[in-house]
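Running this now, will post back.
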Amino acid sequence: MADTSTPNATSGNWALEARGLGKRYRRGWALRDCSFRIPAGRICGLVGPNGAGKSTLLGLATRQVQPTTGDLRVFGVPVDDPAVLPQVAFLGQDKPLFKRFTVAETLRMGAELNPGWDAAAAERIVRAGNVPADARIGTLSGGQRTRVAFALAFGKRPDLLLLDEPMSDLDPLARDEMSTLLMAEAVERGTTVVMSSHMLTELEDMCDYLLVVSEGRIRMAGDADALVPAHTLVTGVSRDGSLPPELAGHIVIESRVQGRQFQAMVRPTGPLPADWERAEPSLEEVLLAHLRSPDAPPLYTQGARVDAEGTQAA
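Update: finished.
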């Protein structure tokens, strides 16, 4: 029988937990056989190219989309349990706000729709950006509208905040301001954040956990601090342009040949050749290598994956 207790950030160690999750449309699978865990209290970057399945995954987590296969839980409770809804806030690219409403009217609407509304927090976020309470939404700048949208999201006091590129239309200064706001509010409240973004440097600055999706499947999941050190950039000599025998047995994510020089991003399975140059890659380099190589073996850090029956996978 399903657990119907009210979920919260302390009711389980996992904010999101998927087992064999999949979604199929008429054109094919948008997500398939996705199993992963995101710990509570983390800021997780959701990374992948357009059409990878990121928006579908967020739609499943907000019940806007129904799964074809598998199971998704929020703080240990099935996502379709009514108790989950008040604990989750979602903010997408379009930031649907009523343009004719004033800022004050928008916040009052938030209070009417959310029983646990935190008026002080919502008003604080708006005031910090010097957004006039009597200004109509349609007259605000992109940064101001995004700030009001964040005020609505955090005013709900969510345990889980899902973001689908909400800052994609902002200039660099406004993006930096909103990123600072997001991190400050999330840390203060202990909110788990899952944010989809194409800005890899932004994710590197903000996120301590990663979920990488490509072609509808999970390619990497886990602590950013563990995912990056698992990779090494190596440079050596290739006699005929093929994979050098020195790298046999290692997991090669991506490689290129320039003349006789062979460069590769590898996950070492043992000692690397002593005469090869080695360097630690950046997070951006690791992410790009995996996104360019969707057939590379997936990588999960400890605890980030569960099998279809819900037991922790190695």
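The radius of gyration is 22 Å. More later if anyone needs it.
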